[in-house]
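Q: I'm teaching a short session on how sequence maps to structure, and I want students to see two examples side by side rather than one. Could you give me a first protein with its sequence written out and its structure tokens following it? Keep the formatting plain so it prints cleanly on a handout.
A: Of course. Example one:
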Amino acid sequence: MSYTLAVGSLDGAASSWHEFGHCLKWGSVFVLPAWLKVWWEAFGGDAELYLRMLRQGEKTIGFAPLLVNKETASLIGSADVCDYLDFAVVPGRESDFFQVLLDDLRENGIKSLDLRPLRPDSTVLTHLVDIARKRGYEVLCRPEDISLELDLPATWDDYLSILKNKQRHEVRRKLRRLWEAGNVEHRCAEVGHELEDHLDSFFELFSLSRDEKASFMTPRMKTFFRSLAKSMAEIGLLRLGILELDKVPMAMTMGFDYNGSHYLYNSAYDPRFNHLSVGLLCKVLCLKESIEKGVKKWSFLKGGEPYKYQLGAQEVPLYSCQITIS
């Protein structure tokens, strides 16, 4: 078979994603070109981009979004803001893609791959690792973190039924107390022209949160979040959950709906309303709305916070993988 491995750009990949993106398997929202472009502009630093698009004739086979530091290549992104990463490949063509890619990496003087974080179903772990080992390359994969996710049932009542008795009782009790507090409104919606106002409210709530959240949101990180929200809104993926009492925001979530899944990316709340459990209930109500919309999976993402288990989420291990190309 005759292949062409073309040098690409993030601008080009992001602008043409709707044209070629449907043929590739994009494993999560974190690997979409629009996401990678925002990350690169915020955190790319001195690294060199290595973007390759494998084509067979007019058909796109795979996309390699890599950056290079000296002689090591890694996936574009970072574990603090990208929960898991991967290549984007046409299902069934992984072997063709990785064979050509590994040859090109060697020809360009790349001596190692440092790939992380990875889901167990990533193309790296399901295909690249075996291909690399058959070539005699040294491969080291190890557990690195966990993510949590939940397969959503068809109805809210079905969801409540999967919770333990104590948790089901607590969710119902806290919701009743919330609705009794006054004029309470919740919406988990795609936003348009009012995005900036919502983002201002989100950052204000974030600044009120516990110390580690406030210290996380540096000016650089805030710029990243703003750019990310705008970029994801432009392609119709951004969802902001907003919980208000008498029109005053008490809690918000930032998430993304993509490919049948909701990704709960971050959240913030006003500690003055701790007695109403608004941080938790803003997530619960967004989850409820996702069920009603027919979303199939809720990804609570990295971290083992107790509330994720209490709401029924299950662990998914995340890995790192180092491959020495020789």
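Q: Perfect. Now a second example for contrast.
A: Example two:
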Amino acid sequence: MRPLAMVVGASRRVGREIALEFARTGFDLVLTFHSDQIGAQETCAMATELGAAATLLRMDLADMDATLLAARSLSLDKLDALIVSAAMWEKDAPQHEADAQAARLMRANANTPMALARALSPALRRSTLLGGASVMAFGDIHVDFRPMPEFSHYLASKSSLHQSFRQLAVELAPHIRVNVIVAGVIAWPQSMGADELAAYVRRVPLGRVGTPRDAAVLVRFLTLEAPFMTGSAIVLDGGRSLGPTQD
């Protein structure tokens, strides 16, 4: 039986590349999307061309109850990897909207990923991978490195993810491994300009931003070749969190 990975947020960019990397490695897939169904269908077609059987599933991480209902509808007997690539990234809202925004970001970026891992833990425990199944989510270097003005609720949610996944690693051991990839810029946002990109790159010791491929090969490594690693926060930022190299 082929191993099975669920990639949450597989419509494009990092999530898509992770899904395709698993397909290349011989996994079948459950691919989730929130609003970009066309992108998810494209990812599904690419994975199928690589030999994977792929199932599409809509999930909104800001709606925990609906997300858990969708996951349970699959009635999975076995799951080998759960990778949460999706996240909600927003600037702080005006004060009268702040409480609602903070709650929404906390659900999407921390509470629902943790609840999803717990809900799928019976299937994850039946994985036959060396070291057990692998659960991962993406954090943010700015939690511990340099706070970003106007993103306090987003960073609070990512800080909670970092800490809650450490707890989850203890809770789900010894048959399930749980790690966080603490990411810098992986795939430069299309909304940002060339001058901003150049200024950012000057502050990265390796002289570039990350690519979806950088993230995907790390996810594959942690899933298949790191059976003694759990509860870790692995930094993937080209050295950005070491401090600026140039101003």
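Q: What should students look for in example two?
A: Point them to this: Helices lie at 13-25, 37-49, 64-73, 98-119, 121-125, 152-172, 194-201, 212-224. Also worth mentioning: Residues 98-119 form the longest helix (22 residues).
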